[in-house]
Amino acid sequence: MDAEAETTKMSKTIILIPTRMSAQRLPGKPLLEINNLPIISHVVKRGQETCIGEVIVCAEDKEIVQAVEKNGGNAIMTGKQHKNGTERIYEAIKKLGKKNIDYVISLQGDEPSINPKDIINLNNLMTRNNADIGTLAAEIKNHSSLDNENVVKVITKNKLKKNNFVEAINFFRKNLSKEKHNIYHHIGIYCYRLPILEKFVNLDQTKNEIENRLEQSRAMDNHIKINVALAKSSPIGVDTKEDYLALKKIMEYKS
Asked: Which of 102, 111, 174, 228 lies in disulfide reach of 11, CB 3.0 to 4.6 Å?
């Protein structure tokens, strides 16, 4: 076995899904159902389909924990004080007392259509490159996304290709007029090397993070490198009732 394959085999990853009921635009969305299954349980299934490691939902609401467990998943209660999902998963890691974890994947609880193969590819690239933080992005096919503040964009140092892992230059919601090259639709999944996750949550929130509502800005502002892998497609995130109804229609049609 070569060194690269051995590293990939020996590294251990856990998948954590931070979630809460009190989303501003669509309260209660983790428990909205598609095909008689809550959205959060669909996300659990996508994580389980990767066979990367343990999949655990991190929630501040008892009803989410109960729904996940009822549908065969694992969940843990976390506090209500967290400013973002990264702080929530770090609390979960400490509560779980996992000592043998090398990488932590934070999977968004409102993207039930994310492709498990993209998650697997991200994990492989992280372990292969011993990267600090990794994430996914997809080609932008609809140019109206460039002006849509709900669609987070990432600009990368080089063009994304299959199986390369390119450094991010910056993340934006708007104001992209000065830079037209290597702009992609950012997908809200992060993989952290465990010591970097601990470093991240102990840093103060930055001005960019607060103003742009982008927690990855905290890493960029503190010179922590984020690498980006190309995803096969952009999953539909559920931010509004319209998103939910559109995704429900697609997923129920496919089933």
From this structure: 102
Sort strands 33-34 and 37-38 into parallel, antiparallel or unpaired. antiparallel
How many CB atoms lie under 10 A from the CB of residue 175? Answer: 9
Burial (CB count within 10 angstroms: exposed 0-12, middle 13-18, buried 19+), residue 211: exposed
- Asked if residues 122 and 47 have their Cβ atoms less than 8 Å apart, the reply is no
**Entry pTM:** 0.91
List, in sequence order, every residue forming a beta bridge with 190; answer none if it has no partner. 106, 135
103: Cβ–Cβ under 8 A, 6 or more apart, which residues? 11, 12, 13, 14, 123, 126, 127, 191, 192, 193, 194
Cα–chain center distance at 130: 18
**Contact criterion met (CB below 8 Å) for 238 and 110:** yes
Strand partners, 14: 104
Q: How far is CA 227 from the centre of its chain?
A: 13
Q: What is the pLDDT of residues 113-136, one digit of tens each?
A: 999 999 999 999 999 999 999 999
Place of tokens 């991200």: 122
